[in-house]
């Protein structure tokens, strides 16, 4: 009887230890971005220049992460923003609709994990863009970006202030995707969150793209962490 009790106690301790060492989280938000600026693209001899005048679009974004205690092997985070479409003017030619689909894969390391958290890694952003209307074009590109995320946990309040940025730049050209958010603990791993996201794409004839586009707006949703 004593041996069985000891075995049960050991198994319970092992499971509790694993729960402390392993981490998992998922989130889903309603996202209401607005597009401004100009997106120009040349492919197969066709050039389009779509001018956005604060065009808005309601969509959603989802994300998930997995953390583990194995040294040297990075943790992993995946974010996805399904096809989001913005309509803009193509000058005298009429209008275009630019649809953007994004999937981000981010291996990262935890540098700090306490009241203050800090993660550093690299993001591979899979970008799929379709231009339809007066021009019909597609662009598929995998873009490597640096990744930094941080958080401040306000102990005793159930409130967490978080942010992350993904960035790639050279000279005056850059691509930035940044988010800030406030997260409230609701009950047993469930959380509510509100935040703001901004993407900026400033390119001068790279990948056939000449752009000064900004896509930005608020988001709100639910999350679960284990």
Give the secondary structure arrangement, pairings included:
Layout: H1 2-21, E1 23-31, E2 34-43, E3 46-56, E4 59-67, E5 75-89, E6 95-113, E7 116-133, E8 137-154, E9 159-170, E10 173-187, E11 190-206, E12 209-225
Antiparallel strand pairs: 1-4, 1-12, 2-3, 2-12, 4-5, 5-6, 6-7, 7-8, 8-9, 9-10, 10-11, 11-12
Question: Can you put this structure into words, describing what you see?
Answer:
By secondary structure, the chain is mainly beta. It has a single domain, classed as Lipocalin (Beta Barrel). The protein is 9% helix and 75% strand. The chain contains 1 helix and 12 strands, in the order H-E-E-E-E-E-E-E-E-E-E-E-E. A 10-stranded antiparallel β-barrel has the order 1-4-5-6-7-8-9-10-11-12. A hairpin with a 3-residue loop joins strand 7 and strand 8 (137-154). The longest helix is centred in the first third of the chain and has 20 residues, at 2-21. It is elongated, with a radius of gyration of 21 Å. It starts with a helix and ends with a strand. 19% of the residues are buried. Residues 1-20 have low confidence and may be disordered.
């Amino acid at each position: 009887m004593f041996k069985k009790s000891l075995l049960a106690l050991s198994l319970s301790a092992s499971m509790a230890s694993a729960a402390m060492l392993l981490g998992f989280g998922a989130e889903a938000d309603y996202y209401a971005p607005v597009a401004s600026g100009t997106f120009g693209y040349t492919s197969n001899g066709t050039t389009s220049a779509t001018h956005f005048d604060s065009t808005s679009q309601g969509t959603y974004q989802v994300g998930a992460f997995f953390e583990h205690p194995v040294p040297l092997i990075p943790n992993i985070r995946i974010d996805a923003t399904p096809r989001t479409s913005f309509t803009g003017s193509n000058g005298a030619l009429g209008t275009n609709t630019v649809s953007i689909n994004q999937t981000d894969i981010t291996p990262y390391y935890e540098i700090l994990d306490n009241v203050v958290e800090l993660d550093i890694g690299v993001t591979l952003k899979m970008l799929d863009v379709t231009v339809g209307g007066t021009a019909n074009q597609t662009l598929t590109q995998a873009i490597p970006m640096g990744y930094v995320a941080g958080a401040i946990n306000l102990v005793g309040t159930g409130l967490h202030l978080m942010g992350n940025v993904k960035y790639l730049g050279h000279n005056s050209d850059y691509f930035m995707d940044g988010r800030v958010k406030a997260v409230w603990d609701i009950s047993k791993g469930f959380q509510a969150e509100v935040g703001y996201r901004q993407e900026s794409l400033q390119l001068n004839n790279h990948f056939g793209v000449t752009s000064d586009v900004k896509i930005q707006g608020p988001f709100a949703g639910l999350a679960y962490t284990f």
